[in-house]
């Protein structure tokens, strides 16, 4: 299947992937984490100029910042409508889990993989995936770095590695720690085990989607996963004094 994938949960990324052959036909990754609008149009135009025609659009639904997520999801929906192909959503951190699993294929990777991304406000978005098949074990969550351990403890029975449910002090002892959150808060969360796996990449989002489809799991709708309320609030309605 030819999948067009888009993720703007952290840095923006666009890819066209043949998931049957494993070929990345085209991929573009932004270096700037905030200029999603400026990046997404030219990147899509370049990727869609390839001869291969996408059969499915997959967008990363976050969690991530409000504006960034909307840019990527709206772009994906626009392409789907223009080309009359379905648009589906998948958690953005699944792309990092997929990248890890593909990098360790044939190895001895096992146990939980903790992925933490920058949520701004001095917080992180985090999820736990299984190292064997990139399946989601728990999350996504959002919390201050110092509170991640408590959240993991509360969900320890879901995460449970070979040593049993995680204890409060075990965050930095998790075998694999991936994502930009560990680069930002190593003193609290521990250093990342693979510094190159920091942000979701669209090509791995496509492969993650193909894995979900092959496993018989349905992809979600292209609805953003925010995890918290927006900063902007609607102005209160004022009653007119005119009669």
Description:
By secondary structure, this protein is α/β, with parallel strands linked by helices. It has two domains: 2-92 and 200-214, ATPase, nucleotide binding domain (Nucleotidyltransferase, domain 5, 2-Layer Sandwich); 109-189, Nucleotidyltransferase, domain 5 (2-Layer Sandwich). The chain has helices at 36-48, 66-83, 93-103, 148-154, 156-159, 180-184, 186-189, 202-214; strands at 2-7, 13-18, 23-29, 56-60, 87-90, 112-120, 123-130, 136-143, 176-178. The protein has a five-stranded mixed β-sheet with strand order 3-2-1-4-5, sandwiched between helices. Strands 8-7-6-9 form a four-stranded mixed β-sheet. α1 packs parallel to α2 and α3 crosses α8 (202-214). The chain is globular and about 45 Å long.
Short description:
31% of the residues lie in helices and 23% in strands. By secondary structure, the chain is an alpha/beta fold. The protein folds into 2 domains: 2-92 and 200-214, ATPase, nucleotide binding domain (Nucleotidyltransferase, domain 5); 109-189, Nucleotidyltransferase, domain 5 (2-Layer Sandwich), CATH 3.30.420.
Radius of gyration: 19 Å
Give the amount of beta strand, in percent: 15-25%
Give the count of helical stretches: 8
- Quickly name the level 1 CATH class of the largest domain: Alpha Beta
How is the secondary structure organized here?
Elements: E1 2-7, E2 13-18, E3 23-29, H1 36-48, E4 56-60, H2 66-83, E5 87-90, H3 93-103, E6 112-120, E7 123-130, E8 136-143, H4 148-154, H5 156-159, E9 176-178, H6 180-184, H7 186-189, H8 202-214
Parallel strand pairs: 1-4, 4-5, 6-9
Antiparallel strand pairs: 1-2, 2-3, 6-7, 7-8
């Amino acid at each position: 299947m030819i999948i067009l994938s888009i993720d703007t949960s952290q840095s923006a990324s666009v890819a066209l992937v043949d998931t049957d052959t494993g070929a990345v036909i085209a991929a573009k990754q932004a270096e700037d984490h905030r200029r999603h609008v400026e990046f997404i149009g030219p990147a899509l135009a370049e990727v869609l100029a390839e001869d291969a025609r996408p059969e499915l659009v997959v967008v990363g639904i976050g969690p991530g910042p409000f504006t960034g997520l909307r840019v990527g999801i709206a772009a994906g929906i626009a392409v789907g409508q223009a080309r009359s192909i379905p648009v589906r959503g998948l958690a953005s951190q699944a792309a990092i889990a997929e990248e890890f699993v593909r990098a360790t294929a044939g190895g001895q990777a096992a146990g939980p993989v903790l992925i933490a991304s920058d949520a701004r406000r001095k917080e992180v978005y985090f999820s736990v995936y299984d190292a064997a098949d990139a399946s989601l074990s728990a999350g996504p969550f959002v919390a201050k770095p110092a509170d991640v351990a408590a959240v993991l403890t509360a969900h320890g029975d879901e995460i449970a590695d070979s040593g049993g449910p995680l204890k409060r002090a075990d965050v930095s002892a998790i075998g694999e720690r991936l994502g930009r959150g560990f680069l930002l808060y190593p003193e609290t969360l521990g250093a990342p085990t693979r510094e190159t796996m920091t942000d979701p990449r669209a090509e791995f989002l496509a492969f993650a989607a193909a894995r979900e489809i092959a496993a018989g799991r349905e992809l979600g709708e292209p609805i953003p996963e925010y995890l918290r309320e927006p900063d902007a609030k609607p102005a209160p309605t004022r009653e007119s004094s005119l009669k």
